[in-house]
């Protein structure tokens, strides 16, 4: 049983015999920032703003985007610290492997595969629908008549356009990261120009009166800036949060980025700022151009410019939107083969996925497999079904990253072991720090505190679902749990922190990572039961692969043996400095003397040093 537990909790270490990464380092700061912006500013900016304004938040969608941006920033800076610590391909998968253990790492990596597969398929399906709207829905009508799919959990018809687009872009990614990033930079530039045109043209037709409406139709709230109240703003923020999903793909390029410890954190922060400004500006202009209850939730821009009779701008924006969705599709696909490559390279997924083609220097098999998988998903499922599944894996990955930041910040690689751990010392350490550097006791206090914090955060989310906020009992229960969460954060914050120097560190630890964990868990509890069921099925498939293949073929087993061998050799060499068992590293004197006995050096001359120099 102990061997099984050790297998589940073994952590990733660098192999002493491991060669340099085979992936080419070609992505600079501009490439990384463009990748983050391009993978995020897609369906969100062209669909989400109008959709949330229409029947969820009204003009206060601008505040919803602000709240979502702050929540995303918490996750973003946690990702940035990990990028500074572990510049390896695989994103949160590698981070959790290094800090927590193999089983949790596989769970996170498997969820990230789901996130990027569904993200790719949903963008492709959205792009197909946008193109279909330009030709008066003739494509969907023809496929519905000739090839209908009459299955409740599948789409209405097979979408061959999205299938072909994903396969085309998979081939582009297989050809090489630099070539695909060059095309991504072009698409992202077109995207930003399109958003600029929307902001300028929309601003010329904006009216503040659309934020002060009082005479609104039934079902459109009470009018004004917040027609659906604070509850609508928060519900909108939960939906807008998913408009920021995608920036984390920057962190998956650790083995292809130039100077990753500097460029990846910078690219994450810069891309988040650009993304928020674009969302905030577009939602402001959109709700000022047209009353919120008249928005088209599927294609808000064309209807808004139709309403002001600017038909030329409408077509420019529509064409720009198609390019933008192509960018988002490329950004969603980019990290998927990299994660498969990292997991295959570690042996917990099939090792053939880690094969790097010598010409393209990309994980060719992983790219082709992931492209085919995403293309089939896009062809068979409709957009609503895909979007419903996209969030849960992302939120769980963000939660694990924030937890890993806390674990790493309050431990060092070589901590002193506290042999005598007595209850009075532990209670004193909870509220009065007695140590300057982390040790095994303070690290254990931190880890237990993180677990307790997560449990009480879940309890708080359950209370939000169960209790009525207007009732005194509900308010008291939520207040008590909230006070306990704050106390736990303070206890964690009083523990000594790691002395390791990094190029980027999360500020205000532990409050920022704890807040990130809390927000992510809260949003996970907003998901419906069917999403959780699909998620559990996906996890069950992954665990079957891990327990039948990954746990026995993990390359960490060989890494541990290599470390043990090097340690044993070092100990043997320190005891017998004249014996060298490894003949590949025999010094020259053994070859010269032939007998394996080191010749004694000539008598060293004695020098007298004068103080009169």
Plain-language structure description:
There is one protein chain. With 613 residues, this protein is an all-alpha fold. It is 66% helix and 0% strand. It has 23 helices and no strands. The chain has helices at residues 2-9, 29-40, 43-55, 61-85, 92-99, 102-134, 138-146, 160-175, 177-204, 229-241, 260-289, 300-307, 311-333, 335-345, 364-380, 383-409, 423-431, 440-466, 472-493, 511-524, 529-553, 556-575, 588-593. The longest helix is centred in the N-terminal third of the chain and has 33 residues, at 102-134. The chain is globular and about 85 Å long. The N and C termini lie far apart (71 Å). The model is unreliable at 15-20 and 578-613 (pLDDT under 50).
Biggest beta sheet summary? none
> What's the tally of helices?
23
Report strand %: under 5%
Runs with pLDDT <50, length 5+? 15-20, 578-613
Question: Cα-atom Rg, whole angstroms?
Answer: 28 Å
Series of H and E elements: HHHHHHHHHHHHHHHHHHHHHHH
């Amino acid at each position: 049983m102990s061997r099984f537990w050790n297998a589940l909790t073994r952590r990733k270490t660098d192999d002493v015999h491991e060669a340099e990464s085979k992936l080419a380092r070609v992505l600079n700061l501009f490439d990384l920032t463009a990748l983050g912006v391009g993978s995020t500013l897609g369906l969100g900016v062209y669909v989400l703003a109008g959709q949330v304004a229409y029947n969820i938040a009204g003009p206060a969608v601008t505040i919803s985007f602000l709240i979502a941006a702050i929540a995303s920033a918490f996750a973003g800076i946690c990702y940035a610290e990990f990028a500074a610590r572990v510049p390896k391909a695989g994103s949160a998968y590698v981070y959790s492997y290094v800090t927590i253990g193999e089983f949790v790492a596989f769970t996170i990596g498997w969820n990230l595969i789901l996130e990027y597969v569904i993200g790719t398929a949903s963008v492709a399906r959205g792009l197909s629908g946008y193109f279909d709207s330009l030709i008066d829905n003739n494509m969907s009508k023809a496929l519905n008549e000739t090839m209908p799919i009459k299955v409740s959990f599948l789409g209405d018809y097979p979408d061959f356009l999205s299938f072909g687009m994903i396969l085309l872009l998979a081939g582009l990614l297989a050809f090489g990261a630099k070539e695909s990033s060059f095309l991504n930079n072009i698409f992202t530039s077109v995207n930003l120009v399109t958003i600029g045109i929307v902001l300028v043209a929309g601003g010329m037709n904006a009216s503040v009166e659309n934020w002060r409406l009082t005479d609104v139709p039934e079902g459109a709230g009470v009018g004004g800036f917040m027609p659906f109240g604070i509850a609508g703003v928060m519900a909108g923020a939960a939906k807008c949060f998913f408009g920021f999903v995608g920036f984390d793909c920057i962190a998956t390029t650790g083995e292809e980025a130039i100077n990753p410890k500097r460029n990846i954190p910078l690219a994450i922060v810069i891309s988040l700022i650009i993304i928020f400004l674009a969302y905030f500006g577009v939602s402001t202009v959109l709700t000022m151009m047209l009353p919120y209850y008249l928005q088209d939730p599927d294609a808000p821009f064309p209807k808004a410019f139709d309403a002001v009779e600017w038909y030329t701008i409408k077509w420019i924006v529509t064409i720009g939107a198609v390019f933008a969705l192509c960018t988002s599709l490329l950004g969603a696909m980019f990290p998927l083969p990299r994660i498969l490559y990292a997991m295959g390279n570690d042996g917990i997924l099939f090792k053939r996925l880690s094969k790097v083609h010598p010409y393209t220097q990309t994980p060719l098999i992983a790219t082709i497999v992931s492209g085919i998988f995403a293309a089939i998903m896009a062809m068979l499922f409709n957009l609503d079904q895909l979007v419903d599944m996209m969030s849960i894996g992302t939120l769980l990955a963000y939660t694990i990253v924030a937890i890993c930041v806390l674990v790493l910040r309050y431990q060092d690689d070589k901590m002193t072991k506290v042999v005598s751990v007595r209850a009075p010392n532990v209670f004193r350490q909870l509220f009065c720090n007695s140590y300057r550097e982390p040790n095994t006791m303070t690290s254990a206090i931190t880890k237990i505190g993180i677990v307790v914090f997560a449990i009480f955060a879940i309890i708080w989310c359950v209370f939000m679902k169960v209790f009525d906020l207007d009732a005194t009992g509900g308010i008291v229960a939520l207040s008590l749990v909230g006070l306990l969460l704050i106390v736990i954060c303070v206890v964690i914050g009083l523990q000594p922190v790691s002395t390791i120097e990094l190029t980027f560190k999360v500020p205000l630890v532990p409050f920022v990572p704890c807040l990130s964990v809390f927000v992510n868990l809260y949003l996970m509890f907003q998901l419906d039961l069917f999403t959780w069921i699909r998620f559990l099925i996906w996890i069950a498939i992954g665990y079957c692969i891990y327990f039948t293949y990954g746990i026995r073929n993990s390359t960490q087993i060989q890494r541990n043996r290599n470390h043990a061998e090097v340690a044993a050799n070092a100990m043997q060499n320190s005891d017998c400095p004249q014996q060298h068992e490894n003949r590949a590293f025999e010094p020259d004197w053994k070859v010269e003397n032939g007998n394996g006995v080191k010749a004694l050096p000539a008598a060293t001359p004695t020098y007298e040093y004068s103080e009169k120099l």
